[in-house]
Amino acid sequence: MSNQDQRAVFSRRDFMKLGAGAAFAAAGGGLSCLSLGADKTTLACSFRSLTNPYHAAFNKGAQSFAASVGLPYVPLTTEGSSEKGIADIRALLQRTNGNLVLNVDPNDSADARVIVEACSKAGAFVTTIWNKPKDLHPWDHNPNYVAHLSYDGVAYGEEAATQLFKAMGGKGGVVALGGIFSNVPAIERKAGLDAALKKFPDIQLLDFQVADWNSQKAFPIMQAWMTRFNAKIKGVWAANDDMALGAIEALRAEGLAGQMPVTGMDGTPPGLAAIKAGELIASVDWDPYWLGGIGLSMGLQAKDKKIDVAALPKDRRESYCKATFVTKANVQDVIKRAAAPGGDWNNLYARVSGPVVYR
Predict the structure, then answer these.
(1) Number of C-alpha atoms within 13 angstroms, CB side, residue 164?
(2) DSSP class of residue 266?
(3) Do 164 and 282 meet the contact criterion of CB atoms below 8 Å apart?
(4) Which residues cross the membrane (predicted)?
(5) Are residues 118 and 7 in the same domain?
(6) Is residue 61 a part of any domain in this protein?
(7) Looking at the 3D structure of the chain, how many domains does it have?
(8) What is the pLDDT of residue 36?
């Protein structure tokens, strides 16, 4: 691939497209057009936005599972609003009379408690992804709170930072982009960055700012950093691919894309393409397609009494799952898998790696 082709992998036009799917997301999250059968269980996922490649893949996995069991499926998008997310779920609970299986990535950690309590009261079954308070546990809401699935953000945040610092030669200034302050994955990934910094005393954290998981917010932050710190910046750590790509676009404007190491997380298609092009050195693939379907499968099996969740060990109720650390060495394999995703929706615990750890 030529340098020109590499630069074209993530062009300015592609960057702007990341914010152009609002109408599609709003349509996907609307309830006014639903026609739900009273006798059929409705499946639903609630997540931030369909404009984010990670959540778009999450939604596709959910759609695939719903098609495999022949049940209606409803995507709900919070668009970054906890109030909207909770209101849409309550409306769907009422519309389905509680005959609902929900897989939810709460907009904020505190939202999980409200959502779980509403589902339990209505008789619906719910699985949470990523975000929940430390003192909220599935076994305290049997059988309706089926499971909580997450990943060890501290470990992967540290691994991404370690790879970045090695690419920097173990010294120099780094800037870092974080997710929403109150999100568990954002908190954990930042803790991983901090852990890596302690192991590399010659790396200086020049600044850390929150860009809310969003490339459009990361772009001007990176521009300002380049003005403020100039040549002191030797690397960029980002808590997700979307923010990393925003930083890369700012670097591109200065002719530095591919010349300064940048790391992300989420293993999104644009992020993987950037690794292949040499503009991003690492990411983490959580396989959101699998998460979208498996959370619904767990809930439906609990509702249909195919599993007795109350009898399961706690590490099957609050679980870390297996992820893939992605670099240029294995990116092609991950791209192939992402192009033809699949999931064994009946093997619920194949990718469970152990219990959630509260630090």
Answers:
(1) 37
(2) B
(3) yes
(4) none
(5) no
(6) yes
(7) 2
(8) 58
Looking at per-residue pLDDT, the higher value among 338 and 231 belongs to 231
pLDDT tens for residues 122-156? Answer: 999 999 999 999 999 999 999 999 999 999 999 99
Q: Give me the half-sphere count of Cα atoms (radius 13 Å) on the Cβ side of residue 146.
A: 30
Percent of the chain with pLDDT over 90: 85
Q: Is 238 a domain residue?
A: yes
Judge contact between 147 and 317, C-beta under 8 A: yes
Is it the case that residue 111 has pLDDT exceeding 60? yes
Radius of gyration of the chain (CA): 20
| CA–CA distance, 353 with 225 (Å, rounded to integer) | 38
Other Cβ atoms closer than 10 A to 86: 19
CA 176, chain centre distance (Å): 18
CA–CA separation, 281 and 298 (whole Å): 35
Does residue 21 lie within any of the structural domains? Answer: no
Q: Which of 31, 312, 292, 293 is CA-nearest to residue 145?
A: 312
Pair 298, 276 in one domain: no
Q: What is the pLDDT of residues 181-212, one digit of tens each?
A: 889 999 999 999 999 999 999 999 999 999 99
pLDDT at 16 over 80: no
Number of Cβ within a 10 Å radius of residue 26:
13
8 A C-beta contact, residue 193 and residue 236: no
340 in a structural domain: no
Query: What's the distance, CA 131 to chain centroid?
Result: 10
Which helix (H) or strand (E) segment is 319 a member of? strand 318-321
Whether residues 38 and 107 fall in one domain:
yes
Which CATH number does the domain housing residue 251 bear?
Answer: 3.40.50.2300
Q: Same domain, yes or no, for 162 and 276?
A: yes
Residue 2: pLDDT above 50? Answer: no
Domain span at 217: 3-15+153-285
Q: Are 103 and 299 in contact (CB under 8 A)?
A: yes
Cβ partners under 8 Å of residue 12, min gap 6: 249, 252
Shared-domain flag, residues 144 and 178? no
